[in-house]
Design goal:
about 280 residues, alpha/beta, six-stranded mixed sheet, six-stranded parallel sheet, 9 helices, globular
Length: about 280
Amino acid sequence: MRVAAVIGSPIEQSLSPTIHNAAFRTHGDDWIFVAFHVAAGHASQALESMRTLEIGGLAVTMPLKTEVCDALDVLEDSAKLAHSVNTVILQADGSLLGANTDGEGCCNALESVGAVLASAKVAVIGAGGTARAIIGALSLRGIAEVTVINRTERNAQQAIEVSPLALIGDESDIAKANIVINATPLGMVGTDPTELPCDVKFLSRGQFVLDAVYRPLDTPWLRGARQIGATTVDGIDMLVHQGALQQFRWLGRLPSVEIMRTAALEQINSRSAEHAPIA
């Protein structure tokens, strides 16, 4: 049996084992997916363990996506541009290849609900590794421009360096976009629930609005967008689409994103039931 794993901290609530194991079972793969708690500063040791134990693939989550970049043998262009890795592949010669499927997974999730990326104007909120990966992937899909909205101008400047189609903007530019993407942790469990990625007054009917946050699944920001009449895409959709691309890199075939999404929702519902108050 081949092992794949996700590394990061905290890791207990990760849905990666759930979605990947569901796909392995459905497709009859002799693989199992597990989670390893790896704190910041220990990425290189984790990667050496991958090589030693011949772990077939790694998914990388916070806070290691940038740290991992400096400890790999080879980086694909997607990871170089974003300076962020979410996927590691153990190659036949024993070398470790870093890739990033976040951006392409985001694009696929948007297209799955009817968004047309060609010639679109896109607003990306955030400037971290996930945002940079998304900006890079969008630029390869024929968009017209991508505007980066971020509180820290220095980080925004680094993000627009990923693509010649990217520029720095502010909240008012969101109203001009066809597609709006939240690539920040705002709205995630543990953050201030009243703090939104942007004021919903800048959103409008006809826009496609994607939130990379999936804990909670239906964020206040997405609810506000849906009430306005926007088409919304939740973080689980992005998670399963990027996860499917990870499996393609590890096994050479795309799994069913529907199977992965169903498994994720069942796990979320199960966790919610466990913590529900007893009447």
